[in-house]
Write a structure and sequence with these properties.
There is one protein chain. This protein is an alpha+beta fold. The chain has one domain. It is 13% helix and 28% strand. It contains 1 helix and 5 strands. The strands form 2 sheets. It has a 3-stranded antiparallel beta sheet. Strands 2-3 form a two-stranded antiparallel sheet. The protein is elongated. The protein binds zinc ion. Zinc ion binds next to loops.
C-alpha cells in the first residue's frame, strides 16, 4: 500500500479505514403505492453500464473525512 496522509486534517498518516466498494446492481419498479428494489445481474442487461467507481474509498481514522484513495496518496506526496 502507498503512503497516505489525510487531505483534511493533514496530520494523520497512519490510522485509516479502507472501505471496500461492493456495488449491487438494482432495478426499481415504481408502483402507485410503493417502490420495489430488485437485485439484478447488470451484465445480462445491455442498458446497464458497468460499475466504474473506485475499488475502495478511505476514511481518516482521526477526523472522519472520506475520499478516494488518490486524494490521500496525493496529500502524502506533497509533504
Ligand atoms: Zn483527517
Amino acid at each position: 500500500m502507498e503512503k497516505m496522509c489525510c487531505p483534511n486534517c493533514k496530520t494523520n498518516k497512519s490510522r485509516f479505514y479502507i472501505i471496500d466498494q461492493v456495488p449491487r446492481a438494482v432495478k426499481l419498479s415504481n408502483d402507485i403505492e410503493s417502490t420495489h428494489e430488485m437485485t439484478v445481474d447488470s451484465e445480462k442487461d445491455p442498458f446497464f453500464a458497468p460499475y466504474s467507481g473506485p475499488e475502495y474509498r478511505v476514511q481518516c481514522g482521526l477526523c472522519g473525512t472520506i475520499e478516494n484513495p488518490e486524494q490521500f496518496i496525493k496529500t502524502a506526496n506533497l509533504n
